[in-house]
Amino acid sequence: MNAKTTASEQTASPPAKSASRKPKPPLSLDQALAQTDREARRKAAAILEVLAGVRTPTAAAEALGITPMRYYLLEMRAIQGLVKACEPLKLGPKISPDREAQRLRKQVATLERECARYAALARVAQRAVNLLPPPADKKAVPGKKGRRHKPPVRAVKMLARVKASLEPPVFEVRATTVPEVAATP
Question: Coil, strand or helix: which one is 23?
């Protein structure tokens, strides 16, 4: 290295890769065919012959050794695959659950640090203007029970009178017995 380079230049990391990656070029037809098995190539050829009008679906099914109904299902799957392959590729990194969880953990840690910083700034500002900090919750002290307020007796009597005036009057219902009928022989 040159003697004039600074220490910061020596420790600098290489430039980061750009976030947008170029998609891989598609395989050539020969490469794609080499990666598939012979049976898949036979089925694809039969479907292409039917779509081109060279064979009938029944003849293609007989050549493949399957029923015509199975051929139509196979043709439908092939067309769905063709349509799916024509969709535009999504560029950029794929979001995995692990990567998303890691990002959220970093965000939580950052927000916690920020919260602690703002709390410290609030305490400093309170001290600067001689404000007392807000009182702590008395209920938060463990092992100490708060005293329960006893209402005055007069308030209890008034409450009973108000509740009684709100309830509809209750009528007393007498229990009557039904006379037993003697069994006739």
Answer: coil
| Domain locations along the chain | 29-85, 92-134
- Quick one: which of 51, 58, 56 has its CA closest to 76? 51
Q: 45: exposed, middle or buried (C-beta count within 10 Å: 0-12, 13-18, 19+)? A: middle
C-beta of residue 39 within 8 angstroms of C-beta of residue 111: no
Longest distance between any two alpha carbons in the chain, whole Å: 132
Greatest mean pLDDT among 103-117, 126-140, 168-182: 103-117
The percent of residues in the chain predicted with pLDDT above 90, rounded, is 29
Please state, in angstroms and rounded to a whole number, the distance separating the CA atoms of residues 49 and 52.
Answer: 5
Residue 178: band (very low, low, confident or very high) from pLDDT cuts 50, 70, 90 = low
* Rounded distance between C-alpha atoms, residue 125 and residue 74, angstroms: 74
pTM of the model: 0.39
